[in-house]
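Possible regression after last week's pipeline update?

I re-ran a chain I had predicted before the update to compare outputs. Posting the input and the new output here so someone can diff against the archived version. Not blocking, just want to make sure nothing changed silently.
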Amino acid sequence: MRHLTAAGVCFGLAIATIVGCSGGDELKLVPAGGTLTYNGKPLAGASVTFTPTKGPVATATTGMDGKFTLSTNTKPGAAVGDYRVAVIAVAASAKTESVDLTPKEGAPQGVNPYEAGLQNQAKSLIPEKYNNHEMSSLAFTVKAQGENQFAVELKD
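New output (post-update):
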């Protein structure tokens, strides 16, 4: 009987640990987005990737007016924190071809796995330095309160 009670206690603790840990760690996202321009003009159809120092990546695609709204793991918004930004914009003719957008395992060091999916596959419309979040020098902070609208300005 004593053996059954010890096993029951262990089972109960295991269930409590699983239930207690699964619900409280949901990622809190805040609305975030902005406008992307290249040499002062809106850049349509570009992929924007916000890579945090810690946590999940936030991504977006720009509209015809260069505006974008970030999402994280298919949910609207971005987590609060500091981000380095990469932008990928390829020629329209290249977009109609089959371009692999899946994250790449074993991407070169310093290259976000999402960014690696497009590198060297199509003609870039912007300087290559913007394709890599570590080389772009674009950095923004998503804040818990206030407006998180960023002006992402690319130049030659």
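Follow-up from reviewer: compared with the archived run. Residues 29-154 form a domain with the Immunoglobulin-like fold (CATH 2.60.40). Marking as no regression found.
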